[in-house]
Amino acid sequence: MMKVVGKVFEPDPDGNDASDGHIGRRLREIRKLAGLTQAQVAKRLDIRQSAITGMERRKDMHVSTLRDYLSAMGATLRLHAHFDDAGALINNLREADFGFEQIDENQLLLPIFGEAPLPPHRDVVFSIKPEYSRKIVSGEKTIELRRRFPMSVPPGTTALIYETSPTRALSGIAEIGDVHRRSPEEIWKSFGDQACIARKDFDAYFTGVDRAFAIELRHARSLPRPLLLSELRDRFSFEPPQSFLYATPKMREALLYERAKIPN
After folding, report:
1. Whether 150 and 130 share a structural domain
2. Which of 65, 78, 217, 249 is deepest in the core (most CB within 10 A)?
3. What is the pTM of this model?
4. Cβ 109 vs Cβ 80: under 8 Å
């Protein structure tokens, strides 16, 4: 018997079922493609078969019900909001507390339900004080601390280092290793020395939070030349983040030349 395993289903705005709005009919088709009967799905959900029949007759339903139905087939529900001509909204969402995927300069995809995986080659830009950024590129500081950071960032992701005032320039590059999410006290005990921060400054930064993030940085080095904020604004419409952001596709492409000149 065929079974859908690990499949991710996304609403298709161009499909017939999306246009007529009949979610239940679409679920019935997916169930049949997975080779499952109503009775089998009902058993996995520990409900009556008549409840499955009712679901498949509905034109709409709660997201939680839709998630459970698909989960019974080994599938994952993911909902996105796709914005066209969203240049202004992109600028407002570049701070990465809310994860999003930028398709191009004027389109973005926001995850509504289910975490969207970080797209490959998505560089992260950190805002870091000069005294800390210099310790990073010298190899003395190998841990960057954050109050928030996405756990979905994979090892090997490029970290671009933006030095804050008075430098105000993109000055360094590193590679992200593992991301650790623990209590502030656990982070201090495990990574305090590698973070190169005084305990009083550490405590002040993490005041009021019960979880802290320690981001491993490796292979750090300086860019061949710093890219000043004025240039970053002119070329990429870049505005420094308070914490971090994802580099835009245009910015990542333009930086390939700078990064190619950096010895490994």
Report:
1. yes
2. 217
3. 0.57
4. yes
Q: Can you read off the two tokens belonging to residue 129?
A: 């004080």
Distance CA 42, CA 64 (A): 16
216 and 104, same structural domain?
no
Single-letter code of the amino acid located at 44: R
CB-CB contact of 133 with 163 (8 Å): yes
The predicted-structure confidence for 139-196, as pLDDT tens digits, reads as follows 999 999 999 888 878 899 999 999 999 999 999 999 999 999 999 999 999 999 999 9
Return the number of other C-beta atoms located less than 10 Å from residue 251's C-beta: 19
| Measured distance CA(51)–CA(109) in Å, rounded | 34
Could you tell me if residue 1 is inside a domain?
A: no
Residues 255 and 165 reside in one and the same domain: yes
Q: How many CB atoms lie within 10 A of CB 177?
A: 17
For position 136, which CATH number holds? 2.30.130.30
Q: 85: domain range?
A: 80-113
pLDDT digits (tens, 9 = 90+) for 208-232: 999 999 999 999 999 888 999 999 9
